[in-house]
Amino acid sequence: GENVEQHPSTLSVQEGDSAVIKCTYSDSASNYFPWYKQELGKRPQLIIDIRSNVGEKKDQRIAVTLNKTAKHFSLHITETQPEDSAVYFCAASPAAGNKLTFGGGTRVLVKP
Amino acid sequence: GAVVSQHPSRVICKSGTSVKIECRSLDFQATTMFWYRQFPKQSLMLMATSNEGSKATYEQGVEKDKFLINHASLTLSTLTVTSAHPEDSSFYICSASLTGNSPLHFGNGTRLTVT
Fold it and tell me: Within an 8 Å CB–CB cutoff, is residue B106 touching chain A?
């Protein structure tokens, strides 16, 4: 089955700096890669996703890149703000709407 | 707003009792729902895929007789934790896709504490 590795497990950045989280996956059949943000005690919220036919996608301060050959994808948050502090999860799936395999999560702390 | 509703949000039960958790799709029909479990400071682990009108598909290592899943309608899936023990204490979250091939939306989760 699919295995998703995520690094780093914790990330502390100064407000205004960039944050980068990296994930690798094992199953070449995976074609859909979402990123979720989870605040303490709450549900995961989708922040951005990318499909295998695209190499990069951007939405305001958030961008995701995908290297399907190397089986890795990354989340980039620019101009970080204290409200970006949360746990971020990457995931992989054969397709959107299908079951997700999650990475271990990255706890991001943005210091004001 | 939320598209997947889960109830209850919190439940405390005694060891040996059973607890039912409901997951509803709001304003859309979900033939498939996914149940995840999340222990403190850990990731989400898929427990099972709930299929409307048929048996659920369980992930390896998940006891189907302990975690009973019923998906009797296109808008409701239930997870029953039977004979709960303290080690079952966790955050249980369901998810569904609006169209079947769009991103998964998660319910608000149920924090189960077994004493």
Answer: yes
Closest Cβ opposite residue A102 in set B44, B99, B103: B44
CB A73 within 8 A of CB A33: yes
List the Cα angle A100/A102/A108 in 5-degree steps. 135
Structure tokens at B114: 């077994």
- Report d(CA A93, CA A61) in Å as an integer: 24
What tens digit of pLDDT does each residue of A7-36 get? 999 999 999 999 999 999 999 999 999 999
Across B75-110, b (16+ Cβ under 10 Å) vs e yields bbbbbebeebeeebbbbbbbbbbbeeeebbbbbbbb
Residues of B in contact with A96 (CB under 8 A): 97, 101-104
Q: How many CB atoms lie within 10 A of CB A96?
A: 19
Which residue's entry shows tokens 């304003």? B27
Query: Each residue of B25-35: pLDDT tens digit?
Result: 998 999 899 99
Rounded-to-integer distance, Cα A37 and Cα B87, Å: 26
